[in-house]
Amino acid sequence: IKNINKSYMMGEQPLHVLKDISLTVKKGEYLAILGPSGSGKSTLMNIIGCMDVMDSGSYHLDGVEIEKAKEQELTDIRNQKIGFIFQKYHLISTYNVLQNIVMPLLMRGMSLKEAQEASMDTIEMLGLKERINHKPNELSGGQQQRVAIARALVGRPTILLADEPTGALDVNSGKEVLKLFQNLNDMGNTIVMITHDLGVAKHAGRVVRIVDGEIFED
Ligand code: ADP
Ligand code: MG
Fold first, then answer.
1. Residues with CB under 6 A from ligand 1
2. Whose CA is nearest to atom 7 of ligand 1?
3. pTM above 0.85?
4. Residues with Cβ within 5 Å of ion ligand 2?
5. Helices (H) and strands (E) in the chain, counts
6. Which of 37, 127, 152, 166 is the most exposed place for a label (fewest CB within 10 A)?
Protein backbone atom coordinates (compact mmCIF):
# COMPACT_ATOMS: atom_id res chain seq x y z
CA ILE A 1 0.00 0.00 0.00
CA LYS A 2 1.23 3.45 -0.84
CA ASN A 3 0.18 6.83 0.54
CA ILE A 4 -3.18 5.62 1.77
CA ASN A 5 -5.60 8.13 3.27
CA LYS A 6 -8.96 7.50 4.86
CA SER A 7 -11.38 9.88 6.56
CA TYR A 8 -14.78 9.39 8.12
CA MET A 9 -17.34 12.18 8.18
CA MET A 10 -18.34 12.93 11.75
CA GLY A 11 -21.24 15.30 11.22
CA GLU A 12 -19.75 18.20 9.28
CA GLN A 13 -16.16 17.43 10.31
CA PRO A 14 -13.97 14.92 8.51
CA LEU A 15 -12.03 12.67 10.87
CA HIS A 16 -8.70 11.87 9.22
CA VAL A 17 -8.07 8.31 10.40
CA LEU A 18 -5.26 7.07 8.11
CA LYS A 19 -2.64 9.62 7.14
CA ASP A 20 -0.49 8.80 4.13
CA ILE A 21 0.30 5.26 5.19
CA SER A 22 2.74 3.25 3.09
CA LEU A 23 3.61 -0.35 3.88
CA THR A 24 5.03 -3.30 1.98
CA VAL A 25 4.49 -6.85 3.17
CA LYS A 26 6.46 -9.61 1.49
CA LYS A 27 5.23 -13.10 0.76
CA GLY A 28 5.95 -15.31 3.76
CA GLU A 29 6.23 -12.46 6.24
CA TYR A 30 4.59 -12.46 9.68
CA LEU A 31 3.82 -8.86 10.53
CA ALA A 32 2.16 -7.36 13.58
CA ILE A 33 0.57 -3.92 13.44
CA LEU A 34 0.73 -2.55 16.97
CA GLY A 35 -1.08 0.52 18.20
CA PRO A 36 -3.38 1.87 20.89
CA SER A 37 -7.15 1.77 20.65
CA GLY A 38 -8.46 4.27 18.11
CA SER A 39 -5.15 4.56 16.21
CA GLY A 40 -6.72 3.29 12.97
CA LYS A 41 -5.66 -0.36 13.03
CA SER A 42 -9.03 -1.86 12.12
CA THR A 43 -9.60 0.78 9.45
CA LEU A 44 -6.26 -0.15 7.90
CA MET A 45 -6.99 -3.87 8.17
CA ASN A 46 -10.39 -3.47 6.52
CA ILE A 47 -8.72 -1.71 3.60
CA ILE A 48 -6.04 -4.41 3.33
CA GLY A 49 -8.85 -6.99 3.44
CA CYS A 50 -10.71 -5.20 0.62
CA MET A 51 -13.72 -4.73 2.89
CA ASP A 52 -13.45 -0.95 2.90
CA VAL A 53 -12.20 1.54 0.33
CA MET A 54 -9.49 4.15 0.76
CA ASP A 55 -10.01 7.80 -0.17
CA SER A 56 -6.64 8.03 -1.93
CA GLY A 57 -3.50 6.01 -2.43
CA SER A 58 -2.74 2.72 -4.11
CA TYR A 59 -2.81 -0.89 -3.05
CA HIS A 60 -1.31 -3.81 -4.92
CA LEU A 61 -2.10 -7.31 -3.70
CA ASP A 62 -0.49 -10.29 -5.38
CA GLY A 63 -0.25 -8.43 -8.68
CA VAL A 64 -3.75 -6.92 -8.61
CA GLU A 65 -4.27 -3.15 -8.53
CA ILE A 66 -6.96 -3.10 -5.88
CA GLU A 67 -7.76 0.60 -6.20
CA LYS A 68 -8.89 -0.05 -9.79
CA ALA A 69 -10.86 -3.24 -9.08
CA LYS A 70 -14.63 -3.35 -9.60
CA GLU A 71 -17.02 -4.66 -6.94
CA GLN A 72 -17.38 -8.16 -8.46
CA GLU A 73 -13.61 -8.46 -8.74
CA LEU A 74 -13.26 -7.41 -5.09
CA THR A 75 -15.78 -10.06 -4.06
CA ASP A 76 -13.63 -12.70 -5.79
CA ILE A 77 -10.43 -11.30 -4.25
CA ARG A 78 -11.95 -11.42 -0.76
CA ASN A 79 -12.98 -15.02 -1.37
CA GLN A 80 -9.77 -16.22 -3.01
CA LYS A 81 -6.87 -14.14 -1.76
CA ILE A 82 -7.86 -13.09 1.76
CA GLY A 83 -8.41 -15.04 4.94
CA PHE A 84 -9.88 -12.82 7.63
CA ILE A 85 -9.91 -13.61 11.35
CA PHE A 86 -11.82 -11.33 13.73
CA GLN A 87 -11.60 -10.76 17.46
CA LYS A 88 -15.15 -12.03 17.97
CA TYR A 89 -14.94 -15.00 15.56
CA HIS A 90 -17.94 -13.92 13.40
CA LEU A 91 -19.21 -17.47 12.92
CA ILE A 92 -22.72 -18.12 11.61
CA SER A 93 -24.57 -19.23 14.72
CA THR A 94 -27.18 -21.40 12.99
CA TYR A 95 -24.52 -23.35 11.07
CA ASN A 96 -22.44 -26.11 12.58
CA VAL A 97 -18.62 -26.12 12.60
CA LEU A 98 -18.29 -27.94 9.29
CA GLN A 99 -20.79 -25.67 7.52
CA ASN A 100 -18.97 -22.59 8.81
CA ILE A 101 -15.58 -23.86 7.69
CA VAL A 102 -16.56 -24.91 4.14
CA MET A 103 -18.47 -21.69 3.42
CA PRO A 104 -15.68 -19.97 1.39
CA LEU A 105 -15.39 -23.06 -0.82
CA LEU A 106 -19.15 -23.30 -1.40
CA MET A 107 -19.05 -19.67 -2.46
CA ARG A 108 -16.55 -20.70 -5.13
CA GLY A 109 -19.07 -23.14 -6.52
CA MET A 110 -17.72 -26.37 -5.01
CA SER A 111 -20.22 -29.04 -4.03
CA LEU A 112 -20.60 -29.77 -0.33
CA LYS A 113 -18.82 -33.10 -0.79
CA GLU A 114 -15.86 -31.53 -2.60
CA ALA A 115 -15.64 -28.72 -0.05
CA GLN A 116 -15.75 -31.17 2.82
CA GLU A 117 -12.93 -33.25 1.31
CA ALA A 118 -10.84 -30.17 0.60
CA SER A 119 -11.29 -28.96 4.20
CA MET A 120 -10.48 -32.19 6.03
CA ASP A 121 -6.72 -31.57 6.39
CA THR A 122 -7.34 -28.12 7.86
CA ILE A 123 -10.04 -29.42 10.19
CA GLU A 124 -7.67 -32.10 11.46
CA MET A 125 -4.75 -29.70 11.80
CA LEU A 126 -6.87 -27.45 13.99
CA GLY A 127 -8.08 -30.35 16.12
CA LEU A 128 -11.72 -29.84 15.21
CA LYS A 129 -12.57 -33.25 13.78
CA GLU A 130 -14.60 -34.29 16.83
CA ARG A 131 -16.48 -31.00 16.79
CA ILE A 132 -17.73 -30.69 13.22
CA ASN A 133 -21.40 -31.20 14.13
CA HIS A 134 -21.39 -28.69 16.99
CA LYS A 135 -22.92 -25.24 16.77
CA PRO A 136 -20.68 -22.28 17.68
CA ASN A 137 -22.49 -21.70 21.00
CA GLU A 138 -21.53 -25.23 22.07
CA LEU A 139 -17.83 -24.38 21.82
CA SER A 140 -15.36 -22.49 24.00
CA GLY A 141 -13.96 -19.18 22.78
CA GLY A 142 -10.68 -20.83 21.84
CA GLN A 143 -12.47 -23.50 19.83
CA GLN A 144 -14.63 -20.91 18.08
CA GLN A 145 -11.52 -19.00 17.10
CA ARG A 146 -9.98 -22.20 15.73
CA VAL A 147 -13.11 -22.67 13.59
CA ALA A 148 -12.71 -19.10 12.35
CA ILE A 149 -9.03 -19.78 11.56
CA ALA A 150 -9.98 -22.97 9.70
CA ARG A 151 -12.54 -21.02 7.67
CA ALA A 152 -9.89 -18.42 6.85
CA LEU A 153 -7.44 -21.14 5.76
CA VAL A 154 -9.51 -23.58 3.68
CA GLY A 155 -9.39 -21.42 0.59
CA ARG A 156 -5.57 -21.18 0.77
CA PRO A 157 -5.52 -17.38 0.75
CA THR A 158 -2.56 -15.27 -0.34
CA ILE A 159 -2.65 -13.43 2.96
CA LEU A 160 -4.06 -14.14 6.39
CA LEU A 161 -5.39 -11.08 8.24
CA ALA A 162 -6.20 -11.17 11.93
CA ASP A 163 -7.73 -8.25 13.84
CA GLU A 164 -6.98 -8.70 17.57
CA PRO A 165 -7.30 -12.51 17.22
CA THR A 166 -6.52 -13.15 20.88
CA GLY A 167 -8.45 -10.15 22.22
CA ALA A 168 -11.50 -12.12 23.36
CA LEU A 169 -9.62 -15.19 24.58
CA ASP A 170 -8.30 -16.33 27.96
CA VAL A 171 -4.51 -16.45 28.32
CA ASN A 172 -4.08 -20.13 27.41
CA SER A 173 -6.36 -20.05 24.37
CA GLY A 174 -4.58 -16.90 23.25
CA LYS A 175 -1.21 -18.65 23.52
CA GLU A 176 -2.58 -21.54 21.49
CA VAL A 177 -3.70 -19.21 18.70
CA LEU A 178 -0.27 -17.52 18.64
CA LYS A 179 1.45 -20.90 18.48
CA LEU A 180 -0.79 -21.83 15.59
CA PHE A 181 0.06 -18.60 13.76
CA GLN A 182 3.74 -19.43 14.22
CA ASN A 183 3.20 -22.87 12.70
CA LEU A 184 1.19 -21.41 9.82
CA ASN A 185 3.96 -18.89 9.12
CA ASP A 186 6.59 -21.66 9.28
CA MET A 187 4.50 -23.46 6.63
CA GLY A 188 4.84 -20.39 4.41
CA ASN A 189 1.65 -18.47 5.13
CA THR A 190 1.82 -14.68 5.02
CA ILE A 191 0.23 -13.20 8.14
CA VAL A 192 -0.72 -9.68 9.16
CA MET A 193 -1.99 -9.44 12.71
CA ILE A 194 -3.32 -6.38 14.48
CA THR A 195 -2.95 -5.94 18.22
CA HIS A 196 -2.75 -3.29 20.92
CA ASP A 197 -0.67 -5.68 23.05
CA LEU A 198 3.13 -5.57 22.76
CA GLY A 199 3.40 -9.06 24.27
CA VAL A 200 1.26 -10.41 21.42
CA ALA A 201 3.01 -8.34 18.74
CA LYS A 202 6.41 -9.74 19.77
CA HIS A 203 5.41 -13.15 18.38
CA ALA A 204 5.56 -11.73 14.86
CA GLY A 205 8.77 -11.49 12.84
CA ARG A 206 8.24 -7.79 12.25
CA VAL A 207 6.33 -5.14 14.20
CA VAL A 208 4.96 -1.91 12.74
CA ARG A 209 3.72 0.67 15.21
CA ILE A 210 0.80 2.88 14.26
CA VAL A 211 -0.01 5.97 16.28
CA ASP A 212 -2.83 8.38 15.46
CA GLY A 213 -3.16 7.05 11.90
CA GLU A 214 0.53 7.24 11.03
CA ILE A 215 3.31 4.69 10.91
CA PHE A 216 5.57 5.56 13.76
CA GLU A 217 8.11 2.75 13.74
CA ASP A 218 8.85 -0.29 11.57
P1 ADP B 1 -8.42 0.78 16.23
O2 ADP B 1 -8.79 -0.48 15.52
O3 ADP B 1 -6.96 1.07 16.21
O4 ADP B 1 -8.97 0.82 17.62
P5 ADP B 1 -10.24 2.06 14.34
O6 ADP B 1 -9.64 1.89 13.00
O7 ADP B 1 -11.36 1.15 14.70
O8 ADP B 1 -9.09 2.01 15.45
O9 ADP B 1 -10.76 3.55 14.49
C10 ADP B 1 -9.94 4.68 14.26
C11 ADP B 1 -10.75 5.94 14.44
O12 ADP B 1 -11.75 6.02 13.43
C13 ADP B 1 -11.48 6.02 15.77
O14 ADP B 1 -11.44 7.35 16.22
C15 ADP B 1 -12.89 5.61 15.41
O16 ADP B 1 -13.82 6.20 16.28
C17 ADP B 1 -13.03 6.12 14.01
N18 ADP B 1 -13.96 5.30 13.20
C19 ADP B 1 -13.80 3.99 12.89
N20 ADP B 1 -14.79 3.54 12.10
C21 ADP B 1 -15.62 4.60 11.90
C22 ADP B 1 -16.84 4.81 11.16
N23 ADP B 1 -17.39 3.82 10.45
N24 ADP B 1 -17.38 6.04 11.20
C25 ADP B 1 -16.80 7.05 11.87
N26 ADP B 1 -15.66 6.94 12.59
C27 ADP B 1 -15.07 5.73 12.59
MG1 MG C 1 -9.70 -2.24 16.15
1. 8, 10, 15, 17, 35, 37-43
2. 42
3. yes
4. 41-42
5. 7, 11
6. 37
Q: How far apart (Å, rounded) are the C-alpha atoms in residues 146 and 190? A: 18
Half-sphere exposure of 28 (CA within 13 A, CB side): 3
Please name every residue paired with 34 in a beta bridge, in sequence order, or none if there are none: 195, 209
> Nearest-CA neighbor of 98 among 165, 173, 151?
151
Ligand 1: residue of 43, 55, 215 to mutate (most ligand atoms within 8 A of CB) is 43
Q: What is the predicted pLDDT for the residue at 10?
A: 87
pLDDT in tens, 184-218: 999 999 999 999 999 999 999 999 999 999 999 99
Length of the chain: 218
Tens of pLDDT along 109-146? 999 999 999 999 999 999 999 999 999 999 999 999 99
Output phi, psi for 52, to 5 deg: -140, 155
